[in-house]
Specification:
This protein has about 250 residues and is mainly β. Helix content is about 5%, strand content about 35%. The strands form four sheets. The chain has a six-stranded antiparallel beta barrel. Strands 1-2-3-4 form a four-stranded antiparallel β-sheet, with helices on one face. The chain is globular and about 70 Å long.
Length: about 250
């Protein structure tokens, strides 16, 4: 099964269906019927099922797949849908891969190319820690204190708010409360910003002024309430999702 929490906090779960060519769909643990077609719209971040319905969407929920979860969810759904004969997503090849980092308590001396078999079974039966066993070929030597060569990604996010609409360019928004005034904005230029209430995605174009404000360009003008001067009424939240490598200081 593939499970994720959408942007409204609803838990979406898709699993192999009881009938050929179907997936079982649950929303917050409640069965919502079979899925026979499944596609993904990158522009809106939503999954669509047969008949054009948005998967998990309700009156109170747009059911957008969070940007930080999209790669994982769509990757696994491709395999699940193909295995169950549900059409609509790109075909997947082979079996889904998963990776894990194990840091051994003590260095192990092994020739390159040899087979390593290891286990960690001596946990207390009441401990929440998992017992494990593993094996694999030694590909190269590595120092546990310097793991920069391992490209392990951690998803990060920052939240801010729309401040006002640019009077000359309605697709350009001035935003606030995401960065400090001394933040090096070159680290974030070109990254995607998501307007939470609509799911619209924009591109961060750089800083604005000297007080930590910044510019975001959307494909279309956002449908938000503004006053006569273009100031956005209320707190319209936006989120920046970005990746950070675990063993590097730079973003």
């Amino acid at each position: 099964p593939v499970e994720y929490e959408n942007t409204e906090g609803d838990v979406v779960r898709l699993s192999a269906g009881t009938e050929p060519g179907t997936l079982d769909f649950q929303l917050n643990g409640e069965a919502r019927g079979p899925v026979t077609e499944l596609s993904f719209d990158p522009a809106s971040g939503r999954l669509t099922i047969q008949g054009g319905a948005k998967l998990g969407a309700t009156v109170d929920s747009r059911s957008v797949v969070p940007l930080k979860e999209r790669d994982r969810v769509i990757y696994l759904l491709r395999f699940l849908a193909q295995r169950c004969g549900v059409v609509g997503l790109p075909e997947a090849e082979g079996e889904p891969l998963g990776f894990a980092l194990f840091v051994l308590e003590k260095p192990v001396t092994c020739p390159i190319g040899s087979l390593l078999i290891a286990s960690k079974l001596d946990f207390d039966i009441h401990s929440p820690t998992c017992r494990m066993a593993l094996f694999g070929r030694i590909l190269c030597a590595s120092d546990a204190k310097d793991l920069k060569n391992l490209r392990i990604v951690k998803m990060k996010s920052k939240t801010g708010f729309l401040d006002r609409v640019d009077t000359q360019e309605p697709t350009l928004m001035i935003c606030r409360d995401m960065f400090k005034a001394d933040t090096d904005m070159s680290l974030f230029n070109g990254l995607k910003i998501v307007h939470e209430s609509s799911g619209a995605e924009g591109i961060l174009e750089g800083s604005y002024g000297q007080q930590g404000k910044f510019k975001v360009r959307f494909k279309e003008p956002l449908k938000v309430k503004t006053d006569a001067k273009g100031q956005v009424k209320g707190d319209e939240a936006i989120t920046l999702y970005f990746k950070k490598y675990n063993f590097e200081n730079s973003k």
